[in-house]
Amino acid sequence: MATPRAIVLRAPGANCDEEAAFALRTAGAEVDRVHARAVRADPRCLRKYQILVIPGGFSYGDDVAAGKVVALQLQHFLADSLRQFRDDERLILGVCNGFQALLKAGLLVPPDEDGPLATLGLNDSGRFGDRWVDLEVTPGNCPFLTGIDRMHVPVAHGEGRFVARKEWILRGLAQSGQVVLRYAANGSPGGRPYNPNGSHGDVAGLCDATGRVLGLMPHPERHVLPTQHPQWTRRGLQAEGDGLKLFRNAVEFFAK
Predict the structure, then answer these.
(1) pTM (whole model) above 0.85
(2) Interval 159-190: pLDDT, tens
(3) Of 96, 207, 223, 229, which residue is the catalytic one?
(4) Catalytic pick among 142, 157, 219, 229
């Protein structure tokens, strides 16, 4: 099998592209970090890759809204190329700011005649949150999550609150298998999920209807090595961090 090639989309203010590239290389992929302007100038360059990652950070300073400028670029200049990328059974991952961009561009949940069905807004605390969370995983048909039922990874965001326009929309996303990641109970009183931002339905991540496009607020690329966990000496040295499996799944998807 030829080694899968991955592209990490860079943009001004994005600051997790190196971590995403490291995670992909550790999982066995060849990786290029490419600026969004270069991809916009020549969308055909995407044909060289099997995996596309839009990393976290504060692209374009989040001046309009978190991930909004990248979302507009995806929507107006790259939408056809990204849909073709997905339809060619290739994989797209958006982490944190990348999730915001994918969702706002309509690549995870297409809008209807009344506008977006869901978005990511300000944390209900009104503050930036940086902490570790437990995730409950329901992989469904999402290749990134095959064989994963729990993950322990960090979050770091100020606008990560998943908001569905109507309650029935959230129910529909869950019933269709698109709600693949939820914040899970981690010993909090009463066993209630530890939801760091007030997301509706404890939603931490979504995939599109095909399962090949995944967006999530937590950062799996920040728990690839076991020593990245702040309590690794107390937990005992694990074989690998919880996030590595997600990236390895993406690489192994192309071994089929």
Answers:
(1) yes
(2) 899 999 999 999 999 999 999 999 998 755 55
(3) 96
(4) 219
